[in-house]
Every structure is written in C-alpha cells, then in structure tokens.
Design a protein that fits this description.
With about 300 residues, the chain is α/β, with parallel strands linked by helices. The chain is built from 9 helices and 10 strands. The chain has a single domain, classed as Aldolase class I (TIM Barrel), CATH 3.20.20. Helix content is about 30%, strand content about 15%. Strands 1, 2, 3, 4, 5, 6, 7, 8, 9 and 10 form a 10-stranded mixed β-sheet that branches. It starts with about 30 loop residues before the first strand and ends in a 19-residue tail after the last strand. It binds iron/sulfur cluster (SF4).
C-alpha cells in the first residue's frame, strides 16, 4: 500500500516499502516521537484530564517555522511501532483517563493508523479519536478515515499562495485545504459536546497567526466563515515562537497584542465561534518535549 505512495498532495510515487522515501521522509514503518497526556490543547479537547496525544514523526508540509521541528523533519528518527503496539498505546492513554486519542500529523501513516484504531476499538477503545493535521491533505486520504475519526483538528494556515509556497513549499495549499476540510465537516457534522463540555464529534479549524501576516489571517477567517460558518469551531492561535529564523527575518518575532486584538475583532465581526489564546501562550512551554517516550 505504501509502494507507490500518493497519500498526500505531493504524490511522490516512491516505494516506501523498499527504502525509498519521499518528501515527508517516512518509510512504511510508523515512527512515534511522543505519546502522553497533553494539557495544552483547546479546553474542550484537553479538559481536566488531558488529551491522549500521539505525535508521529515526519511531515508532509515542512514549514520553515515548524514548532515541532525535532520530530517533523525528513531525517528525524523516533521510536518505530507496529499497529499492535500503537493500538496498545491508545488503550494505555485511555486507561490514564485521557479524554480522547489525539493523532498528530498522522496521515503519511494512514494505513497503519487506521488498522491500529480498528484494533484498539475491538479491544475496548471508547473515547473519541481525533486527527490533528496541517490541512494539506488529499480528500481521498481523509475518506479513508471515515467512521474512524470523531474529531478533526486541521490547520488552515494560509490564504495566499505566495506565503504557502514560501513557508511550506505548497503553492496549492488553499485549494487542497478547503477541499479536505469540506470532507472533514461532511464526516463529523456540527460540534457535539458531552455533559462535561468535552468535544465528542466535530471539526475544529486551527489558524496559527504568523508575524506580519494579519491580512492573510483575515482572509483565512473570512473563508472559514463563508465556507463552514457555525458548522465548525475556530481556534485562533497566537502561540507562534520563532526558532532560528535567520533566513526569514520577517518571521523572527512573536505576534504582537495589536495584531492579535485586530484578528479577534475580525473573528467576532464574522460571527465565528471557538477559542482564543492568552498572550502567555507564546512560550516554549506550549511546545511538547520530544523525548521519544511512548509511555
Ligand atoms: S505521504 Fe510522503 S511519500 Fe507519500 S506522497 Fe506524501 S510526502 Fe510523498
């Protein structure tokens, strides 16, 4: 299944089963950088117990400002797990009272991840399963997750193809992302919460604000309002923290209060609902330490 890989819009067509690797850098063996309770997702996802988060190594986007760079890059190495071990990890996180299983950047391992979800459900997994991704996903791949994923948490990073090409090497990001989110919303329907206000079903679109890109942020918010309105929740994030941005000096600072406040005003004017962040979010403590432990 990974022998002529077209899982993501890059469509590298490499044979991942015999050592070839494509843009993402992933072989056919699933690699996990960290699996643990995570308390810094949106309140309806982390709740008081935490979200059972599994961070997969490698990524199909390769953003220059990546906040998870130690595991996302092409040559990064993490712990290899098979479907059985991954299913066990899901069940261990459930045992620790996680509110959900949160699969971060998993679509380049779609087949193994889907199998692990099936195995875990056969063995008692009953909390919602959430797919947390960069938004640059093929609709055909998202369809493979139908009925396995309860909550989608896609990024909607850019409106302008200038920025999406420059910072994520994905000139067609907008078109691909909108089609993928259409499919996600179709699968999940409107957000649905349990009695403790923990999300059980739905799509939450994240937008990470970047410095000097307020007008792009506004266009993204406008498209979200036009396309999906109150069928989705929106998380407007200001936690961007620059690392080694010498080649991109325009990205070498945090988001200012002025930028964020203006974005909030626009968010409210559009009638969006969802989540906003305090300024303290822009610290390294929001970024998980990737020590490759899976327990
Ligand atoms: S998942 Fe990886 S190998 Fe497959 S098409 Fe995408 S970038 Fe290429």
């Amino acid at each position: 299944m990974y022998n002529k890989c077209t899982l993501c819009p890059r469509e590298c067509k490499v044979n991942r089963t015999n050592g070839q690797i494509g843009f993402c850098g992933a072989s056919d063996k699933m690699e996990v950088g960290r699996a643990a309770l995570h308390h810094w997702e949106e309140p309806s996802i982390s709740g008081k117990n935490g979200s059972g988060t599994v961070f997969f190594a490698h990524c199909t986007l390769g953003c220059v400002y990546c906040q998870n760079i130690s595991i996302s890059r092409r040559h990064s190495k993490s712990i290899v797990v098979d479907e059985n071990r991954l299913a066990e990890i899901f069940l261990e996180l459930q045992q620790k009272n996680a509110h959900n299983i949160n699969l971060v950047t998993a679509t380049h391992y779609t087949f193994g991840v889907c199998k692990a979800i099936e195995l875990a459900k056969q063995n008692g997994l009953c909390i919602p399963v959430l797919l947390n991704c960069g938004g640059y996903e093929k609709t055909e791949t998202i369809k493979l997750f139908n009925k396995k994923i309860d909550i989608y948490l896609p990024d909607f990073k850019y409106y302008s193809s200038y920025y999406s090409e420059k910072y994520s090497n994905a000139v067609d990001y907008l078109e691909i992302c909108e089609k993928a989110i259409d499919e996600m919303v179709k699968q999940t329907g409107k957000p649905n919460f349990n009695k403790d206000d923990i999300l059980q079903k739905g799509t939450v679109i994240r937008h990470l604000m970047l410095p000097n890109m307020l007008s792009d942020t506004k266009q993204v918010l406008r498209r979200i309002a036009e396309n999906w309105g109150d069928n989705v929740l929106v998380s407007l994030m200001r936690q961007y923290t620059p690392f080694n941005m010498a080649n991109f000096p325009e990205l070498d600072r945090k988001i200012t209060d002025e930028e964020y406040n203006e974005a909030i005003e626009y968010f409210e004017m559009l009638g969006l609902s969802g989540y906003l962040q305090e300024s303290e979010a822009a610290t390294e403590s929001f970024i998980p330490a990737f020590n490759a432990h899976v327990r």
